[in-house]
Amino acid sequence: MFDFRYHLVSLTAVFLALVIGILVGIGISGRGFVDQAERKRLNREIEQLRTQLGTERERSVTLEQREQAEQDVIETSYPVLVAGRLAAKRIAVLFVGSNDQSFVFAVGQSVRDAGGQVSRSRALRVPIDARAIEKALSGVPALAGYVGDAQLGNLGRDLGRELVQGRETPLWDELSGLLVEEQSGAPLLAADGVVVLRTAVPQQGPTAVFLAGLYSGLATAGVPAVGAEGAAADPSAVPVFARARLSTVDGIETPPGRLALVLLLAGGEPGNYGVARTATDGILPPLEPLPSGG
Questions:
Q1: What pLDDT digit, counting tens, does each position of 210-262 carry?
Q2: b/e per residue, 266-291, with b = 16+ CB within 10 A?
Q3: Do the beta carbons of residue 26 and residue 32 sit within 8 Å?
Q4: Would you say 272 and 245 are in contact if contact means Cβ atoms under 8 Å apart?
Q5: 193: β partners
Q6: CA distances from residue 186 to 26, 98, 163, 189 in whole angstroms, order as listed
Q7: Which of 39, 106, 114, 212 is the Cys-Cys partner for 82 at CB 3.0 to 4.6 Å?
Q8: What are the boundaries of each domain within the chain?
Q9: CA-to-CA distance for 34 and 31, rounded, in angstroms?
Q10: Which strands sit side by side in the sheet containing 180-185, from one edge to the other?
């Protein structure tokens, strides 16, 4: 979304490097000056870069103004645009890591603004204790097929699907004591959409395998599934979510991010949305009108 800005930074760096190169060349020259023809050539390059730099600065300012105008419009029209889009829908929320109250509020308020409710929320404890999980599963014959590191991806996938589908949740029932740091809401009713947020640092080894399966399970559970993060996320979880075919939204605490989240949960065009460089599909999904009530 900010290609002009990054291009401007690169261009400025090239400009400075060229000027420094000239100064260094003069400094190391035994006579204190460079060849006249070479000096003319370098001066021409400096002038060309200076002109290009000025042009790119103007384009960057224009881009920033346009983006700010777009966000101002979204913020002003947000209440009207989201009203009724999630009417009577139940949304599940999953944190990979501890609950972040600012994100709890942002997601919950967005869902409520659109007429829905957060029906259940879970915060996963990571990294997982693969050996403890294996021991717990070994004691339940019906779940023994999930035993072993080779099954961690399948285990994560089916836990993701259980979280969305509700009703019978044998894996969550057995493993909540090992996996869940905090939870709320009723697990029995199926969810109409799911939001996942990563608040923990990126994971490695068995936990990474498990989480890849979990994200895949959410993405294939048959309802809109969105990976979300804040504007200051570093490193971003969007590439990980996108590999699992989750739609994504950055800046979830901002009006554009909250609107994008509602549109995706309401069945909008899947993709990667927001204002960060990872938002390859723009700020918002296409804005479809609500069906008429008549």
A1: 999 999 999 999 999 999 999 999 999 999 999 999 999 999 999 889 999 99
A2: bbbebbbbbbbebbebbbbbeeeeee
A3: yes
A4: no
A5: 91
A6: 74, 19, 11, 7
A7: 114
A8: 3-79, 85-273
A9: 8
A10: 180-185, 117-124, 90-96, 193-198, 225-228, 247-249, 272-273
The SS3 assignment for 88 reads coil
Distance CA 83, CA 77 (A): 10
Distance CA 261, CA 107 (A): 8
Whole-prediction pTM: 0.77
**Structure tokens that stand for 141 in this block:** 């014959």
State the Cα angle at 132 between 126 and 133, rounded to 5°.
Answer: 75
Per CATH, the architecture of 85-273 is what? 3-Layer(aba) Sandwich (3.40)
Q: Is 248 exposed, middle or buried (0-12, 13-18, 19+ CB in 10 A)?
A: buried
Task: Decide: 89 and 159 in contact? Cβ < 8 Å.
Answer: no
1, pLDDT greater than 60: no
* CA gap 201, 235 in Å, rounded: 8
Both tokens of 155, joined, read 């285990």
Q: How far apart are CA 278 and CA 79, in angstroms?
A: 26
CB-based contact 174:136 (threshold 8 Å): yes
Answer yes or no: is pLDDT of 294 > 60. no
Reference 249, options 227, 219, 220; nearest CA is 227
Kindly write down the DSSP assignment for every residue of 255-292, as one continuous string: HHHHHHHHHHHTTPPPSEESSSTT-TT-SS---PPPPP
Partnered with residue 226 across adjacent β-strands are 195, 247
> 228 pairs with which residues across the strands?
197, 249
> Which residue is it, tokens 């509020």?
105
